[in-house]
Amino acid sequence: MTTRDLVLVALFAALTAVLGLVPPITVGFLPVPITLQSLGPMLAGLMLGPVRGGLALALFVLLVALGMPVLAGGRGGFGILLGPTGGFIVGWIVGAIVVGALAKRFARTGAWRAPDLANAALACVVGGIGAVYAMGVPWLSVVTGMGLGPAAASMVVFLPGDAIKVVVAVMVARGVQRAYPIALR
């Protein structure tokens, strides 16, 4: 890891924390709020790659565990990771790794032609949504006592916002990569 790598990891952990300044939107029937922070793993994966993106979100989760109020609504602490949202938050690490690995393999981020944009969007869907839900839904089911089927079905409420986040992540990554190219690692 170079100094530049460490700075990028810290920068994207901080960016994910800044996304938490937007207040969460509570969903009446679920203990999981809608937040802008799930955009963090998508951006980190697309712009930094699997290793640095995963490390950025791991640093962020460590800050949460240490009690820093970096989650939406000023929340933090190890207890949050043991609660209903814990699987999703830890899933952000895996999400960033998957997004980064898929983007590195299938999206030529230097070119950003239509197929690259589509591949970057697909990477965000698979990693930023699929991988995060794959960790969060079972955890939500276990912690709340809700069945796995109902827990998975309840995620439908999050999909429109997640689709918007995919588009935003791809467009932001494209703009930043054009102005300041960063090799995916």
Q: How does this model look, in words?
A:
This protein has eight helices and no strands. With 185 residues, the protein is an all-alpha fold. It has one domain: Arp2/3 complex 21 kDa subunit ARPC3 (Orthogonal Bundle). Helix 1 packs antiparallel against helix 2, helix 2 (39-48) runs antiparallel to helix 3 and helix 6 (114-144) packs across helix 8. The longest helix has 31 residues, at 114-144.
Biggest β-sheet, characterized?
none
Number of strands: 0
State the distance separating the first and last CA atoms: 10 Å
**Annotation field: number of helices:** 8
Give the overall average pLDDT.
94
- Alpha-beta content class: mainly alpha
SSE arrangement, N to C: HHHHHHHH
Brief account:
With 185 residues, this protein is an all-alpha fold.
Looking at this protein, list some descriptive labels.
single chain; 185 residues; Arp2/3 complex 21 kDa subunit ARPC3
Layout of secondary structure:
Blueprint: H1 3-19, H2 39-48, H3 50-65, H4 78-82, H5 86-106, H6 114-144, H7 148-153, H8 159-179
Helix pairs in contact: 1-2, 1-3, 2-3, 2-5, 2-6, 2-8, 3-5, 5-6, 6-8
